[in-house]
Amino acid sequence: MAMHPLEQKVLTAIRRENLFNTGEKIIVGVSGGSDSVCLFHVLASLRSSLGISLVGVYVDHGLRPEESENEQEYVRSIVNDQQEEFESVSVDVLEQARERELSIEHAARELRYEALRKLAARYSAIWIAVGHTADDQAEEILLRLLRGSGRKGLSGMRMRSLDIVRPLLEIEKKEILSYLSDKKISFLEDSSNFDSRFLRNRVRHELIPYLEEKFEAGVKKALRKSGESLAEDEELLDELTDIALDQVIMLNIQGEEISDNRILVDRKSFVKQPESLQRRIVEKLLWQIGGRASYKHIVQVVEAARSGRTGAELHLSRGLRVGVRRNELELVFPRGQCSWRGRLYPG
């Protein structure tokens, strides 16, 4: 039987991006909606071509108990029909949203990926495949623009990001629906996709249609093209940041060894870097040491480094201290990653 054009398109993208290797087991997030159902069926059709096997995973977020049982059984049935392994996990989004002080959307996303990663570890799987599409990419770029993201955020999602792969990222929603229709594959509709309390739904169902009607019919394509252009620039800036990092990080000072909990930065070298690279350097340093690289924290660290006020220090989250000395900037967790009230440089 000839390969469906969409399957061929996805296969071409997978091979171009080297997403999978022969013999690998792939964790596939399947909610029962059109995108994830399409993803699972396409990957199942490409198993022999790619030499992979699948684990279909349904994550119950605990938000729609009246729908989740039916969704879980539906996902189980399509996974079993393809003679692949099925897993179902439950997470408590509402409780974790309260404990972590996150929005429901943010908490659901974090818990979903945490659950998928735990299963990946159990199956010794390297990759987690999710069903983000070209339409999702356009929505994500617009969402990030509304939230004030920088160049990196506005470049959108990548087809591969750490352990997450998005084989459908170049596929439009209309292509997915056409594929499912051609294959006579059913799917379920998540009622929360129409809940206007969620910003993403308002962007999808209100803002983008309004922009398409009143301003530019091809707005989603334009957003994706802008994201692709920014992604190319981002790759170059990332390379320049890594070069600058090598120039500013001090490997040791006065015989002191640098540990995972302590990084020293040569202030003179740092302030000579272009301002755009300074922010990127700090972002990478905060991630490297295990801190939170929020925009607010990045700006505070950059300003502290520029001010050069010896003895000044920042108290950031989870006990991270950033101290300023004459020739260096010090990022350190003096007591590990835990909150405490003491100063790094007692006066």
Molecular structure report:
With 347 residues, the chain is an alpha/beta fold. It has two domains: 5-227, Rossmann fold; 251-332, Uridine Diphospho-n-acetylenolpyruvylglucosamine Reductase, domain 3. It is 52% helix and 14% strand. The protein has 14 helices and 13 strands. It has helices at 5-17, 34-45, 47-50, 65-81, 93-100, 104-122, 134-146, 151-154, 173-182, 199-214, 219-248, 267-271, 275-289, 295-307; strands at 25-29, 53-60, 85-90, 127-129, 160-161, 164-165, 249-250, 252-253, 256-257, 262-266, 313-315, 321-324, 328-332. The strands form three sheets. A six-stranded mixed sheet has the order 3-2-1-4-6-5, with helices on both faces. Helix 11 (219-248) crosses helix 13. The radius of gyration is 23 Å and the shape is elongated. The model has no long low-confidence stretch (mean pLDDT 88).
